[in-house]
Specification:
two-stranded antiparallel ribbon; 10 helices; 3 domains; alpha+beta; Chitinase A, domain 3; elongated; about 290 residues; about 50% helix
């Protein structure tokens, strides 16, 4: 067996075998009817929920397959894991310094995670998120946008023919549907609203120079062909909605909440800092 296969086996085994104890300790158990027993090892029950948790902990390449396809293998890994736990307990490994150190570290990390989660859930309220939205986002103005339609043609001569027809009273949308070679033709040439940076420079320069309700006096050439441009409207890009801004707001307020709370914890603790060589850091001891 190659080193890569050995490493993969260990990774997979560790991902699945540790699940039952963690799942039973940290998660509300489902009703027996919805969470049937899938194996017993000397009376220790392994349930369907354990299999689901183990599946989610597998490396991504293994999660490409349906759970049913790897169900038997996962159950066997969970059984093996429990057998190893029992063997280790017979050897009193739970009393070994190595295991105690790992348990202590796991507990420390779990406490940190649980503490911060409870802090955020308790303090991060919708009214604060909405207040932050109103203060920082709701009244902001985005870049200038143009709403325009265009008719894409092969030649400059074709462009002037279209402009002449429009000056004679032809309907822009109808001509776009009949003559335009661009993908917007079925929509009458309508491109919707766009910022200057969203279009190639010759087209953007021309469109932003045309007044709303007007048609450009000349065809405009770009890498795509010749454009006859009609500008319908100009506006400032509206701010994103509260719902669209929610992930950003949650991150922002979470950072602020944690920073404020950590400052309070630091203010109430005596912290001594040392350099890499063990000498004390100069300055006040309390941080």
């Amino acid at each position: 067996m190659t080193r890569t296969l050995i490493a993969l086996f260990v990774l997979t085994f560790m991902a699945t075998s540790a699940v039952p104890a963690m799942a039973q300790q940290n998660t509300e158990p489902a009703a027996d009817a919805d969470n049937p027993v899938v194996a017993r090892v000397d009376g220790f029950e392994i349930r369907q929920f354990d299999v689901a948790v183990a599946f989610e902990r597998l490396p991504e390449q293994f999660r490409q397959a349906p759970v049913a396809q790897v169900f038997t293998q996962i159950v066997q890994q969970l059984v093996d894991g429990q057998l190893i736990v029992e063997a280790g307990r017979k050897d009193k490994l739970e009393d070994s310094p190595e295991v105690k150190a790992q348990v202590a570290e796991f507990e420390r990390v779990a406490i940190q995670k649980s503490y911060m989660q409870r802090l955020i859930e308790g303090e991060l309220k919708e009214e604060d998120l909405r207040a932050a939205y109103d203060e920082t986002i709701a009244n902001t103005e985005g870049p200038l946008q143009v709403r325009a339609s265009h008719i894409l043609l092969e030649s400059e001569e074709d462009g002037y023919d279209i402009i002449k027809a429009l000056e004679g009273g032809a309907d822009f949308a109808e001509l776009a549907r009949e003559r335009s070679q661009g993908p917007s033709a079925p929509r009458g040439g309508d491109l919707g609203y766009f910022a200057r940076s969203q279009m190639v420079k010759p087209f953007a320069d021309a469109a932003f120079a045309i007044e709303p309700g007007s048609i450009g006096p000349d065809p405009v050439q770009s890498d795509f062909g010749w454009h006859v441009i009609q500008v319908v409207d100009k506006r400032r890009q509206p701010p994103p909605s509260f719902e669209e801004s929610l992930p950003q707001l949650e991150q922002q307020l979470t950072r602020e909440l944690i920073a404020t709370h950590m400052a309070e914890l630091r203010a109430g603790a005596e912290i001594e800092l040392f350099n890499l060589d063990g000498s004390p850091v100069e300055g006040p001891a309390k941080q």
